[in-house]
Hints:
Blueprint: H1 3-28, H2 32-53, H3 73-108, E1 117-119, E2 125-127
Antiparallel strand pairs: 1-2
Helix pairs in contact: 1-2, 1-3
Amino acid sequence: MSETTVSQAEARAARLARLLAEEFEALKTQNIDAFEALQPGKAALLGELSALTGVSDKVVDPDNHPLQDAMWDSFKQQMAACRDAHHRNEILISRQLDAIRGTIAALQGATGQASVEVYDRLGKLSRSRRARGYNEA
């Protein structure tokens, strides 16, 4: 693959990083319309990146893949940052969904099986088995 291909991939990776930052801002402000408007652009960028790099869902031999060249190192670092930004957005969405579910449950009235909910280090919701429910207290 040529340096032009690498430059094109790096430019698209930079656009993806900006788009993920916009997505995070939309999620923070709970602007669902803005979040949803970003999704087609993100999907298109990922498709372009897949076509440029030759990376797809099918299994490839990592030792013989063209991305093993040193000229792709900067691109791979950009994509690792994009992966981390996507994971951050995923955690925020999960927390917001958990808060909404908790609000709905509170509005519907607590059942005898209500329990205390705690987040783990990854931002995932984990129910404490030792915790007593609100109705048991």
